[in-house]
UniProtKB/TrEMBL annotation:
It catalyses: Na(+)(in) + 2 H(+)(out) = Na(+)(out) + 2 H(+)(in). One of its GO terms (cellular component) is plasma membrane. Gene3D superfamilies: Na+/H+ antiporter like domain. Na(+)/H(+) antiporter that extrudes sodium in exchange for external protons. The gene is nhaA. The chain crosses the membrane at residues 45-64, 91-109, 130-151, 157-176, 185-206, 212-229, 236-259, 330-349, 361-381, 401-427, 434-454. This is Na(+)/H(+) antiporter NhaA. It comes from the Bacteria. Its main location: membrane.
C-alpha cells in the first residue's frame, strides 16, 4: 500500500485523501467476500448464529461414524513444565478453564459497564430486571430440584439458572423491528443480573477442595490490581500479568479459575485517564501543528509528523477508559472464537437410548429442560407482575406483559453457562451428557416458542404518557 503525498490544507480536509486499506478497496475479494462477512459479523444476530453452527457441527460430529476422533481430540493432553509446576491437562480442560476465563472476563466487563454507565446504575430502574432475574434463577432451580430430589442428579440444580445473552439477543433481533427497543435493554439487564447470580453460584457451590494458601495468593494478586489502578498505572500489560497470575492461583486453589476473569473484569477502571474535552483540545493543537508543517511548504519533516501523530494516538487512547478498550478488544475474540470453540468442545452429545439409561439420567434431562422452558418464563413474568403491583419497579415504555412473556421464554435459552455448569456439577459423564441433552432440547424449544410469541405480539399503541406515570401492568 502506497501513501499519498498530496498537500493537506489547514481546513476543509477530506477523508478522501486517505489511502484505502485492502479491505476497503474495490478489488473483487474485498468487495464480494470480505466486506459482506464483516457486515454480517457486526450484526447482533451474528454471534448467536456462529454459536449455533459450532453446536450443530459438534452434534453431527459426535453422532457420526467419526465420533471417536471427536472424543480423542478433546481428550488430547497439552501442557508445559515451569520449575516444579507441571501444567498438563486435556484440551477440553484448557478450553473450559482457560479460554472460558477470557469469556468470563468479558462478562465481568459488561457487568461493570452496566453498573457504572448502564441500566443497572439507576437503582430504581434496575430494580425490576434484578427482581425478575432473581426469580428467573430461583424458579428453574426449584423445578429441577423437585424433579431430582433424592436422585444422583440432585447436584445439578444450578444448570438451568443462567441466560445465554448472545442467543437471547439474536432471537429478539430475528423477531422483528416492531418490538420496542426498551425490551432489549430489559432482557439484557435480566441477563446481566443472571450472570452475576451464576458467578456467585459457581464460586460457592461448584468449587471444591479449596487450598486457602493459593486462594490468599489469588486475592493478593487481585488486590495488587486495585493498587496499580489507584496509583495510576496505565500499561495494560501489567494488569494482564497480574490477571494470569490470579488465574493460575485460583486454578491451584480449587476455586474455579474462570472467576479470575470475572474479578479482573469487575476491577478494570471505568474512567479515562484524560478528560475527553481536554484530550480533544490537545489533539487539535497537535493536528494543527502537522497541518501547518505541510501548509507552509517549507518543511516536510516526516519524523516530526510521526512523533506528533504518535502523541495524538497516545492521548486518544488515554481519553478512553481501560474498561472500554479491553471490552472492545476482547468482544470479537470472545464471541467468534472462544464461544464457538467452547460449543464445539461441549455440545457434542452422543444421542442414543443408552445415553439416558443411567440412574437418574432421564430426571436430569427433564429437570433441565423444564427448568429452562417453564421455570424461566414463570419466574420472570411472575416477579415482573408482582413487582409492578407492589410499586417496586415499572415496565419500560412500550413494553407489555406479552413482551415480558416472550422475553421470559427467550431467557430460557441457557446454552453457554448451562453447559459450563453441567461440566462442573457431575463426576458421572452419563449425567453430564443427560444434562446437555436437556440443555439443547430446552434451549431450542425456548428459542422457537419465544420467537413466535414475540413475533405475534401486538404492536403497542403510541402513548404520550411519561414513563414515570405508567401504571402497573394488569395480570
Amino acid at each position: 500500500m502506497s501513501g499519498k503525498n498530496s498537500t493537506h490544507e489547514a481546513s476543509g480536509s477530506s477523508d478522501d485523501e486517505l489511502s484505502l486499506q485492502y479491505l476497503e478497496s474495490d478489488r473483487a475479494i474485498p468487495r464480494a467476500v470480505l466486506r459482506p462477512v464483516r457486515s454480517f459479523l457486526q450484526t447482533e444476530v451474528a454471534s448467536g448464529a456462529v454459536l449455533v453452527v459450532a453446536a450443530v457441527v459438534a452434534l453431527i460430529w459426535a453422532n457420526s461414524p467419526w465420533h471417536t476422533s471427536y472424543e480423542q481430540l478433546w481428550h488430547t493432553e497439552l501442557g508445559f513444565e515451569l520449575g516444579r509446576w507441571n501444567l498438563r491437562y486435556e484440551l477440553h480442560h484448557w478450553v473450559n478453564d482457560g479460554l472460558m476465563a477470557i469469556f468470563f472476563a468479558v462478562v465481568g466487563l459488561e457487568i461493570k459497564r452496566e453498573l457504572v454507565h448502564g441500566q443497572l446504575r439507576d437503582r430504581r430502574a434496575a430494580m425490576l430486571p434484578v427482581v425478575a432475574a432473581l426469580s428467573g434463577m430461583v424458579v428453574p432451580a426449584t423445578i429441577y430440584a423437585v424433579i431430582n430430589v433424592g436422585s444422583p442428579g440432585a447436584r445439578g440444580w444450578g444448570i438451568p439458572m443462567a441466560t445465554d445473552i448472545a442467543f437471547a439477543v439474536g432471537v429478539l433481533v430475528l423477531a422483528g423491528r416492531r418490538l420496542p427497543p426498551e425490551l432489549k435493554i430489559f432482557l439484557l439487564s435480566i441477563a446481566v443480573a443472571d450472570d452475576i447470580g451464576a458467578i456467585i453460584v459457581i464460586a460457592i457451590f461448584y468449587s471444591s477442595g479449596v487450598a486457602f494458601a493459593w486462594l490468599a495468593a489469588a486475592v493478593g494478586l487481585l488486590a495488587l490490581n486495585v493498587i496499580c489502578s489507584r496509583m495510576g498505572v496505565r500499561h495494560l500489560g501489567i494488569y494482564l500479568v497480574v490477571a494470569v497470575g490470579a488465574w493460575f492461583a485460583l486454578l491451584e486453589s480449587g476455586v474455579h479459575a474462570t472467576l479470575a476473569g470475572v474479578a479482573t473484569g469487575l476491577l478494570t477502571p471505568a474512567n479515562a485517564f484524560h478528560a475527553p474535552g481536554a484530550a480533544a483540545r490537545a489533539i487539535v493543537r497537535r493536528v494543527r501543528d502537522v497541518e501547518g508543517n505541510h501548509a507552509s511548504a517549507v518543511s516536510d519533516d516526516q519524523e516530526h509528523d510521526e512523533a506528533v501523530l504518535w502523541e495524538v494516538r497516545n492521548i486518544a487512547r488515554e481519553a478512553t477508559s481501560p474498561l472500554f478498550r479491553v471490552e472492545h478488544s476482547l468482544q470479537f475474540w470472545s464471541a467468534f472464537v472462544i464461544l464457538p470453540i467452547f460449543a464445539l468442545a461441549n455440545a457434542g452429545v452422543r444421542i442414543s437410548s443408552d445415553g439416558m439409561s443411567g440412574e437418574g439420567a432421564s430426571l436430569v434431562a427433564l429437570g433441565v429442560a423444564l427448568g429452562l422452558l417453564i421455570g424461566k418464563p414463570l419466574g420472570i413474568v411472575g416477579a415482573t407482575v408482582l413487582a409492578t403491583k407492589l410499586g417496586i419497579g415499572r415496565l419500560p415504555a412500550g413494553v407489555t406483559l406479552v413482551h415480558v412473556l416472550g422475553a421470559g421464554i427467550v431467557a430460557g435459552v441457557g446454552f453457554t453457562v448451562a453447559l459450563f455448569v453441567a461440566g462442573l456439577a457431575f463426576a458421572d459423564p452419563v449425567l453430564t451428557e443427560a444434562a446437555k441433552i436437556g440443555i439443547l432440547g430446552g434451549s431450542l424449544l425456548a428459542a422457537v416458542i419465544g420467537y413466535l410469541v414475540l413475533r405475534l405480539a401486538p404492536v403497542p399503541a403510541p402513548t404520550s404518557v411519561a414513563p414515570e406515570q405508567r401504571q402497573p401492568i394488569d395480570a
